[in-house]
Structure formats: C-alpha cells, structure tokens
Amino acid sequence: MSGHESSYEPTNAFTRWLDSRLPIIRFAQDHAMNFPTPKNLNYWWTFGGILAVCLVVQIVTGVILAMHYSPGVDTAFASVERIMRDVPYGWLLRYIHSNGASMFFLAVYIHMFRGLYYGSYKAPREVLWVLGCVIYLLMMATAFLGYMLPWGQMSYHGSNVITGLFGAIPIIGDTIHTWIMGGPSIGNQTLQRFFSLHYLLPFMIAAVVVLHVWALHVPGNNNPTGVEVQDVEKETVPFHPYYTVKDAFAIVLFFMMFAVFVFYAPNVLGHADNYVQANPLVTPSHIVPEWYFLPFYAILRAITFDVGPIPAKLLGVIFMFAAIAVLFLLPWMDTSKVKSMRYRPVARQFFFGFVATCLLLGWCGASNPDDGVFGTPGKKLVVSYTDAGGAEITSEYDGGGEAYLDAKKFVESLPAGTNASISAVAKPTFQFRHLSLILTFAYFGYFILLFFVGLTESSKAVPESIHKSVLKRSKPSTATAIPAE
Amino acid sequence: MKSLRLLTAGLAGLVFAATAHAAGGAEHPHPPEGGWPFEGAIGKFDQASLQRGYQVYHEICSSCHSMKLLSYRNLGEPGGPFYDPAYPNPNMNPFVKALAAQNEILSPTPNDVGDYDFRPATPADRFRSPYANVEAARAANGGAAPPDLSVIVKARHGGASYIYRLLTGFPPDDAYVQRLVTPETIVTPYSDNGTPDDPSDDVAEVKTPAVYETLLDVSKLPSEHGSSEHEEGFLKINAGQHYNPYMAGDTTPNFEGDPRHAPPGGFLAMPPQLIEGRVEYTDGTKATPEQMAYDVAQFLAWASEPKQEHRKSLGLAVMVYLGLLAALLWFSYKQIWRKVDH
Lengths: 485, 342
Fold this sequence. Notes:
The structure holds two protein chains of two kinds. By secondary structure, chain A is mostly helical. Chain A folds into four domains: about 1-25, no CATH class; about 35-265, Cytochrome Bc1 Complex, Chain C (Up-down Bundle); about 290-375 and about 435-485, no CATH class; about 380-425. Chain A has helices at about 15-20, 25-35, 45-70, 75-85, 90-115, 125-150, 155-165, 175-180, 190-215, 230-235, 240-265, 295-300, 310-335, 345-365, 400-415, 430-455, 465-480; strands spanning about 35-40, 235-240, 380-385, 390-395, 420-425. In chain A, strands 4-3-5 form a three-stranded antiparallel beta sheet, with helices on one face. Chain A has a two-stranded antiparallel sheet with strand order 1-2. The longest helix of chain A has 30 residues, at about 190-215. Chain B is of the alpha+beta class. The interface between A and B is large, with 66 and 59 residues.
C-alpha cells in the first residue's frame, strides 16, 4: 500500500526546507503513523511489534553485557558470574538477555505459525515471507553463537555437536569444520570469533528487518480473511493510534510473561550443566540444545540408518537443513489461491496437525532417543559368554526374580574361562528415535500435502471484502448502530 | 476441530514441561520437610541458617572445596549471612573483617620486593582455596578434584534439595559388610639359610594381611530409597569410592545381584561428612546431620545467587507496574477503537 497518498503537510519554514531535501518526517508519518492497516487484524498480528521490541531488548542488553564480558576460555565463565554478582543490575541484564532469546523465539514461532495459518506467504507477499525466513535463520545463528559465550559445559559440548555437523559434508567437510572452529578443536579462538559474530549478526538482523518492513509496506498487511484491501477508506485505519495502542497493550502482556521468567524462574529454560565451566574431557551424559532448537535436533537424530552411499550422519544433517530450506520454498509449494485457512477446511486440519508435529518433535529432541515413548519398558536378562571355540554366545532370560536365579544357575554351570556375565537389556519398544522418524516425514509431508490439497480442495465461500466480513460478524451487536448501506 | 486445537495447546504445555524435566538414574532429591524459606515468589533466606551454613562450609567443606567466585565482603552485602545495616560498605563491617582474617591466604598481589606473602585475608579477598591448582586438588583426592561450590546449587538439577539429600543420603554404617578376598598368608622366605640350629640368621616371617572388600548390602538400605520390591544383592564399593543414591551415575557394573534391580545413584569420592556434632554452632542450635545439611545447602543456595532476594522483590514491583500499564492500555485501546467495527 505504498501507493497511498502522502498526507503530510510541512507546517513551518524549517520542515518545508527539510522536506525538499530529506523528506524524513514525511517518510515517518507515511510509514509509521498514517500507514493504512486493515481494521480486522486480530491479536496474532501483534507479534510483529512484539518481535521488534524483542530485537531492541536483546541489542540493548547485549551491548551493555559486552562491556563487562570477557571472551576467553579462562575468563568467560567467571566474567558472566561477575556480571551476575558485581555489576549493578548485571543479574537483571543477563537474565533479560538469556531469557530474552527464548522469548524472541517464542514470539517468532507464533509469528511464523500465524503466517502459515493465514497464508501470509502467498502472492503478493512472497518476498516478505522469504525475508522473514532469512531473519529466522540469522536468529538461529545468533542464538547458537551466543549460547557458546558463557563457556559452560552445554555451551562447549553443544557447540561441538553443531560445528561437527559441518564435518559430515563429503570431501570438504573437515576443512570447513576446521575453518569454522579456527583450529583443530574448539578453543579460545573459537570463543572469540563466536563472540565477534554474535555481536555482528543482530545488526544484520536489524538490517533485514528494515527490508522486511519495506516488503510489508508495498503490498500492505495480510488480514484474517486473506482478502486484499479494496476500499482504503472503509477497510483500513491509520497505524497510529489504532495499532500502536493495540500493539502496545499486547507488548505489555508479553512483557508480563517475560518478567515471570526473568524474576521468578530465570534458569528454568536453561540447563543446569551450563553453570559448570566447560571441560573438554568431561562430556555431559545428555547433550541437549536450547528448547527452540529441539525440533530440528530431533530431525537431525531421526535418521539412524545409511541410505546407499549416504551415511546416516550426513542424511540427518541434510534433513535438518532441508527442514529450514523448505520454509523458503513454501510460497511456491502451496498451490491454493485462497490465503486464509479459515476458508480451507481440509488444509486447516493439516495445519493443526503440523503444529502438533512440531511440538512433538520438540519433545523428541528433549528426550533420549533410546527411551521408550510410553514409559520405560521392562528389561530382560542376557547371559553372554565365550565357548571353547572363542565364539560369543548369548542366551536370554525373561521374567521376575526366578529368571535371575535361572540365569545365575546357568552361569555357575558353565565351565571356567568362559567369561560369563549377566546384563540387563531393555526389551524392544517404541522409542523416541522411531517417533522422531515418523514425525520427520510428517513435517515434510505437510508441505507436500499443501501442494496437492491446493489442487483438489473445495474451499468455503471467501467473503467479498474485509468490510463485508466485519459487518457480518458484528451484526448481532451493532445492527442498529450502522444504517443500511 | 476444537479438540484438535485443544490437543495442540495441551501438547505445547507438555513439551515445555518435558524440556524442563531432567531424566536420570539417580534418586529424585525431594526438598527437606517444610521446604526452603527462599523458594516461592516472595521467599527470603533465613539469615541465621545462612550464618550456620557458612560455619559448616568454613569448618568442613572448605578443607577440600573452593568457592573461587566469592569474596569475604559478599558475606556482609545486603541479603548476605552477616549483613549489618550499620555497615553499608561490607569492607568496613568488623564481623566480616574478623571472619576474613581467620583465613590465611597467599596474597594475589606481590609485595614491595616482588614476593608473594602469606597474610590474613581481608574482606576484599576471594575465599581461600584449599589447593593451589586443580592438579593438586586431584592428587590429594584420589584423582577426582572436589568441585568448586560457588555456583553448585545452580549447576545441579534439584538445586539446594540435591545438596541436602546428597549430604544426608549416604547409607547407614550397618549396611556395609566386609568380604574376604584373599586370606592372610604367612611365609618364611629364606628358611633359616640352611642352618636350622643357628637362630641368628633367621629371617622373620613375612605376613601378608588379608584383603577384604567392602560391600553394601542393598537390602539394608533405608526403605525410602528402594522401590516397592524388596531388593537383594550386594554393591561392591571400590576403594576411595562412596555410594550415594542421589549421585548421578550407574551402579550396574558394581552390582552383584539381579542387574535389573541395581540401586539408583552412583559413586563419589567424598565420604559422609556431616557427622552428629561435627561443628559446634555458635548460636546453640543442635548440630544434627540434617541441620548441618540444611544450613549448608541454604548457604550454598545464597552463594550461587546472592541477588535472588533483590530479584524477587524487584519482580513484584515490575509485575505491579506492568499490570497497571496493561490496564491503562486496555482502556486506551477500547476508547480509541470504540467507533471502528473490527
């Protein structure tokens, strides 16, 4: 809607002089104040503003934290704790920054699911969507780099896993892996480059956000009906004060949730192991990334078998990156011309299934892949020994206490030198690795389904215009207030 | 449709809960009876307990465990164990000064001629470390360096409750049995040098003492640790190791018995420390193991997050402010949008 008439009138000699040289006031008024915005946006549309605030909060707290942080393998951990103890309100800054990352991702996921539901990625907003995906990718990179900085056990070993992914690339993988780490292993040089890049990327995000808003202001906002604005006069309201006040209200509600984490549960989204200083020689029993990466981590670990010449590890990496890449292609994968899922009863079911898939993938990512999904299965006893010929033999015993007595009797009956031992082995069950694999296919299946569903589905009647849909909805209460048009 | 959406919302909650939950083979550390005074939205540390906890740390723990991130001045800062409003600057607090001076440290800065002296600590100094470096700590403790306790409560699942349960969770002495591995042997290597009548060149008998191994009789563990099934079996305790049901680890390799019923927990190098009356509390509180564990766990919780009380009290103000602001914005929103159908 950049075509809307500029209504700015310079009021005095200075603004007239400035307007003919750098029309910045005109620009601000056209884009931040008078920008015509559909009047039927619901609260899911407030997350754009919330995200802008999140970025500012992260940059402001981050810049101050960087004044006190010391990137070095011997100093990083202690300097973070020094911020928490000796820097005035340093604990507040650091908890806002560390929980702010989680809040940022929470908001971006809601923002993305909103786009998916209301078809905000479709023409004419493809570039807007792709720029959003670029921002999301940069956010993931920034969060990953930042998680290294406290130099805790999870920082170190998590980074080890993620940088190791690049090592799975055939032929050039090892070179890229070494290049990223700046040496043969993660060390001081890695921490310093991660710090430098962690400071750089947020400003790149800010730059892409400018493009994102620019790309938004050309076609204008999508809206819950998915029908484009036809009558600016009737169907839109100026952004200020209508949406500034509504966004401000939503932002304050979001801040209240944010504050609950910062003030009452600042470490609940983190991992206790990250308060242990990094030690390359001690690997935590269970390496997990931050919650916002868990679905992708589950996809990475879902592939546990080689396919032809492609090793399982590389396949996992390919699937994980494909899970992000597919988002970039989405505008051209959905064949339906109807934007909003409100009028697509079939696709809408699949959408909720997709949300459930993503959440379940997160659960899989947080769990040990070998654990049973439906609780821990019973265990059976396995006696293993070597016979006279040196061959390994196992025999299984299943049951209660008597199974153990039987197994023990059997071991005692074996001749000496057979190295018999009894161990408990979990019975086969439906494990998280199996669930992850199914969900990985469900994840990609959604995008493929959108292609075919769009070709065949019969959608519900789409309202003629935003104005009509609003009238229809508010008729019961406002029928008398609005004379027939 | 509605049910699917509800399912999705339910899943969201479940996933968040699952993320926060940590799996492990160790016993779950429940908080002590009555809970912790510092928990909850308006919880505060019990200052008397913090003071006793410092005493326990200073008299027992500090002989092996460092707390490198703490300085003596922290003890006299607002919210700290020895905070005195009369001394806003903790470096001037005479009590803190006296506590610091009890510890002789190697000065971190050189003297006039460039040597490093031993001197009594001042409030500005860091807590005295028992070992010069991690290698020394490892060498003195059978290869396992005692962890630094500065942030230990934040660094363990279960926090202060874990510390409390670990310290009081060692099996009772009567659960241990000794088992003979090799009996005592007596040999006389060079039997009388071939001159049995001459006692002057006799070589004394060489006695090899019997070798015993320590076993833990799992059936004698307090029932709270066991599952519903009465478990039987023996846990082999390696020299220099101690079993604790709250320690992370795996007891299966050491367990003689049905491997499906290996007891929870693992082994650590630290023997039980909090023996009845090991410290004499200056305030007259009876020093039971539970009392000492409670006090030192609370002290360590404070040390891990000295700004916790301030955080919570500021949080309340912030929530009230945001609540009022939200109400104000809600009414502004209603007012501005009153003429727009949307």
